[in-house]
Description:
- By secondary structure, the protein is mainly α.
- The chain has helices at about 10-20, 35-40, 50-55, 65-70, 95-105, 110-120, 120-130, 155-175, and strands at about 25-30, 45-50, 80, 90.
- The protein has a two-stranded parallel ribbon with strand order 1-2. Strands 3-4 form a two-stranded antiparallel ribbon.
Amino acid sequence: GHPGEDDVPNMVLLPASAQQLTIPFLASGGFGNGKGLAAALSLGADGINMGTRFMATKEAPVHENLKKAMVEATERDTALIFRTLHNTARVFKNAVAKEVVEIENRDGQTEFKDIMHLVSGERGRAAMAKGEIDGGIWTAGQVIGLINDIPSCQELLDRIVGEAEEIIKVRLASMVA
């Protein structure tokens, strides 16, 4: 949920990391299907880490209302908060997130105390437990635009690996043959 303060996208960050690292590493941020896995592998990562995508699975301890909201959302339904505090986080764009962004945009002099009542972890946990979409902030990445169902974890992983293998064996192989 923390994209960093430098706004370096994965298309640059992953190959730059691959040039510097001598150990295996995972790509994070925006991954939720086999296309993303194949791309991450192509860019030098050894696998992917998925946060938001796993929230919309049958096993995830997340209220069904939030899972359904993710299925219905597009990649534009997230907001960046805490930017003025230099601790940027990406969250689902709900009423609370919009209010936090509005406060942060007022004069650029936002202090945590100005938004603390809106972003408390207790409030967010309660919203997630009760399924109140607008009850608090909850982390969600732009990958929500790629979430179209609520599969089991096994179904999701089988699908992602199968899709990535198909892309690598067929599509990419045909480009160099």
